[in-house]
Amino acid sequence: MSNSLSERVYEASVPYLGPAAMVFLKRQTATHMGGLNFEQITLTDLPELLGWILISGRLLIGPKADDLVGKLQNEFNVRLQ
Amino acid sequence: MRNKIHSLGVKLTLSFMFLILFVTALMYALTLTEIKKALKEVVRSELSAISQMMALELNGADGDVMQKLQAGDEKTELYARIKTKLKSFQGVHPDIKYIYTMKKNGSEVQFIVDPMYGDAADPGAAIGEKYADANQILLGGFEKSSTDADYHADKWGTFLSSYAPVRDSKNELIGLVGVDMSATTVIQKQNFIGMMIYLATGIAVLLATVIIFIFSVTIIKDIHKLNRAASDISLGKTDVEIGVVRKDEIGDLAESFGRMVTSLKIMMQK
């Protein structure tokens, strides 16, 4: 069962990453954050997750990844780690 | 390879070009008749003004002279005076073919001074020569200014004419002054306007075609980019650059397409 935080991150990511946004986000937490389940993330995990979204996202969507991360930072009022 | 004739650019350009041609041709056909009518009205007004101005010039002393002139007076100084005046007036208005004075003798209309009299190439009428083709407009000119509504023909040609009464020094009506503009001149003026409209329409169609062509080329160029990207992806090449940045529907399509490609890349990554 996903929490509201992961749902909000997913919803914000869909306009940039499309329907595979969930796969992308799950891959970031599982691969780079010690096997963390994306659906279980908390606010304290968010700065690290945003950092990985920025790095991996730039490879996929270029400068639009910065937009996405900026949007998430504003929405959750967090800074990159 | 698709034939060029089936390309969207050619279809768009041709469709708009035919549409513009159709609309302008329709406008041309509808307005030309009205413009020709309006031009004829302008010419009539011009003729009327000229005949009235000439009548004002002749009113008074010249009117007295005209009244005195009899057949055979063509060599006299008085005749020459009126003739010179008419000719000089004609010189100021080169579109006027003939300018002359007439009087009524009973029911008969006779010439008084026709400046063309004695001209070998275009012989005019002598004093007292009967004018056989007097119509109601001309007869009305002995009373008040009157102008032909349509062309009339006589042995000198086909004309649009205007007449204005001439008075002597006692303010008595003694005759009229007539001005003729050749129908050919009027028709030439009308044709000139028609040609100008035709030319302006042609230039407008040409410009519109060029603008539509450029417009369609820019659209087609971006559609080609999207098409190439789709083709590459369909062949397994996910590292594609769409490169379409627009603020219209094609821009929206490119953005959606880009999102789809991103998703595809994510799904294809292990």
How would you concisely characterize the structure shown here?
The complex is a heterodimer of chains A (81) and B (270). Chain A has 81 residues and is an all-alpha fold. Chain A has helices at 4-17, 21-32, 46-61, 64-76.
CATH architecture descriptor of the largest domain in chain B? 2-Layer Sandwich
Give the uncertain stretches of chain B in residue-range form.
none
Radius of gyration of chain A: 11 Å
Mean pLDDT of chain A: 92
Which percent range describes the beta-strand content of chain A?
A: under 5%
Percent helix among the residues of chain B? Answer: 55-70%
Major pleated sheet of chain A: none
What would the average pLDDT of chain B be, to the nearest integer?
A: 89
* Greatest chain-chain contact: A-B, 12 and 10 residues
- By secondary-structure content and strand pairing, the structural class of chain A works out as mainly alpha
Low-confidence stretches of chain A: none
The N- to C-terminal Cα distance of chain B equals 36 Å
> Which structural class fits the helix and strand makeup of chain B?
alpha+beta
- The CATH class of the largest domain in chain B is identified as Alpha Beta
Strands of chain B, count: 6
Strand fraction of chain B: 5-15%
Question: What is the general shape of chain B?
Answer: rod-shaped
Structure keywords:
heterodimer, A: 81 residues, mainly alpha, 4 helices, 68% helix, globular, B: 270 residues, alpha+beta, Beta-Lactamase, 2 domains, 6-stranded antiparallel sheet, 6 helices
Describe the structure.
The complex is a heterodimer of chains A (81) and B (270). Chain A has four helices and no strands. With 81 residues, chain A is mainly alpha-helical. Chain A is globular. The N and C termini of chain A lie far apart (27 Å). Chain B has 270 residues and is α+β, with helices and mostly antiparallel strands. Chain B folds into two domains: 103 residues, no CATH class; 151 residues, PAS domain (Beta-Lactamase, 2-Layer Sandwich), CATH 3.30.450.20. Chain B is 56% helix and 15% strand. Chain B is built from six helices and six strands; from the N terminus they run αααββαββββαα. In chain B, strands 1, 2, 3, 4, 5 and 6 form a six-stranded antiparallel β-sheet that branches. In chain B, strand 1 and strand 2 form a beta hairpin. The longest helix of chain B is centred in the C-terminal third of the chain and has 52 residues. The two termini of chain B are 36 Å apart. In chain B, 24% of the residues are buried. The model of chain B has no long low-confidence stretch (mean pLDDT 89). Chains A and B meet through helix 1 and helix 2 of A and helix 6 of B.
